[in-house]
Specification:
There is one protein chain. By secondary structure, this protein is mainly alpha-helical. It folds into two domains: about 100 residues, no CATH class; about 80 residues. It has eight helices and no strands. α4 crosses α7.
């Protein structure tokens, strides 16, 4: 922040700090909501405990999944604090980079899944929506992911060689999910699976 203060003055520094903090909060909130929703969906698919599929009776939000995500974050922050990891340059930068790579990967796979879904159900939508749009999204997101991997040291704020192990973590997580899909039973109707959890949350 010192160069900003030197070039633009102390007021510009304060404004920049405020914008940085609010943008960081928005990123953390986005990651929290995304993970909570994925935990909720995993419960619906039978890949996570059914309680994670419970929704709040008033707000309709996946509050149990949100609490689990919050507790997991607190544990990670506590370990980082005990290890003396810098909260911004270390913990947030590395965790944010890993999460960004994961979200991009999931979005790419989802785009291909949309294409495959409509390819198996011809005539249900237009060629633009069922083929062009998902493939264009997949290609664009793949380009973004490639650029992110090439520029990992810049994004993570570290020149350590361990930065390049982050994509390996994404691959391992994908393989673990694929293996779980082969081993765990897959319900034919996910709506029936969520009925007990939703009913319990409305008592």
């Amino acid at each position: 922040m010192r160069p900003i203060s030197a070039l633009l003055g102390p007021r510009a520094q304060v404004i920049t700090q405020a914008l940085l903090l609010t943008s960081l909060f928005a990123c953390v909130l986005s990651f929290h909501s995304t993970i909570a929703r994925y935990l909720f969906s995993m419960a619906a698919e039978g890949f996570a405990p059914l309680n994670l599929g419970r929704i709040h009776v008033v707000h309709g939000s996946p509050h149990v999944a949100g609490m689990v995500q919050t507790l997991a974050t607190l544990v990670m922050v506590a370990f980082a604090a005990l290890g003396g990891v810098d909260p911004f340059a270390g913990l947030f930068a590395w965790a944010g980079t890993f999460a960004s790579l994961g979200v991009l990967t999931i979005q790419i796979l989802t785009s291909f899944a949309v294409f495959q879904f409509f390819r198996c159900k011809p005539g249900t939508t237009s060629f633009l929506k069922g083929t062009v749009a998902p493939l264009a999204a997949a290609l664009g997101l793949t380009a973004c992911l490639a650029l992110a991997i090439v520029n990992l040291p810049l994004i993570a704020g570290s020149a350590s060689h361990f930065v390049f192990l982050l994509p390996a973590g994404i691959i391992l997580a994908a393989l673990a999910g694929w293996a779980a899909g082969l081993v765990l039973p897959h319900p034919a109707n996910t709506e029936k699976l969520l009925v007990p959890a939703i009913a319990e949350s409305e008592r």
